[in-house]
Write a structure and sequence with these properties.
It is a single chain. The protein is of the alpha/beta class and about 300 residues long. It folds into 3 domains: about 80 residues, Arc Repressor Mutant, subunit A (Orthogonal Bundle); about 100 residues, Periplasmic binding protein-like II (D-Maltodextrin-Binding Protein, domain 2, 3-Layer(aba) Sandwich), CATH 3.40.190.10; about 90 residues, 3-Layer(aba) Sandwich (D-Maltodextrin-Binding Protein, domain 2). It contains 9 helices and 12 strands. The strands form 3 sheets. Strands 4-3-5-12-6 form a 5-stranded mixed beta sheet. One of its GO terms (molecular function) is DNA-binding transcription factor activity. Belongs to the LysR transcriptional regulatory family. It holds the Pfam family HTH_1. Keywords: DNA-binding, Transcription, Transcription regulation. This is LysR family transcriptional regulator.
Amino acid sequence: MPISPLPPLHCLVAFDAAVRHASFTRAAAELNLTQSAVSRQIAQLEEFLGRTLFTREHRTLRLTVAGQRYAEQIQRLLNECAEATADLMKRRGDLELTVACSSGVAVLWMTPQLMRFRADHPDVKIRVIVKDGITSLSASEFDLGVYYVRNDLPPDFAGRRLFDEEVFPVCAPAYLDGRTLKPADLVNETLLFIEDGQRKWMSWPDWFELQGVSAPKSPRMVSANYYPLLVQMAIEGGGIVMGWRHMIDPCLEAGLLVKACDSHASLGGGYYLVWPADRHEHAAARIFRNWIYSQIRLPS
């Protein structure tokens, strides 16, 4: 017996995105569609249901009472569908593990950790996915992750703080020819900026403000939206980049970078081991979690 009635799946996906963003325009950007395409799909869904789901007032998008009730159920069902699909695609067994992290964590910190973990636990099959913002990560697509979090974890995630934030400027050893600068001196140097409006990482203006220094109004700067690229530019002598303790430590230990200034700062954030809040922990996740805690000397 066919399941009925079922609206078109693409309309439900568009509806979910519009609910989360409270905007057809931002939903369209997420789905790589035009704003008019998303609007048509919502209209198609409303026609199918015979109910109005949104009220549109002065560029403001609000759910109706029926829309709110429908959204809560559809979001839960889509998440369950995504999780079931991800589980099947990964063919996950007790010794299969998917680890998520940002690009900076992946390149600078996670890679050597995984190599050591593999040496200790060669039977565990590892898959790594790189998502630069924890808010872009779906609970259905990973088992454990390592992410910077400034305030609270997203509601679908649980986690444990691994280490606190500590940020300081770093550069190639030859860049300053052995000198160590004061915070105020940095305004005259080439600064390497991370461009990312979504993450809540510390920026150069934040760092200068915490040092009681006025940030340069027109700094000599190079910017990029990929932090490992900026680190490599610093290694090549292209300027000074902000380094996060623990993440940047391997580069310091290898002599590729040195501290450009003895001062450091924090906005109160930290790096967390995170996992889906409602997921049953399987063997590989438990092994990796306890292994990470042992490396950082946290009790299991």
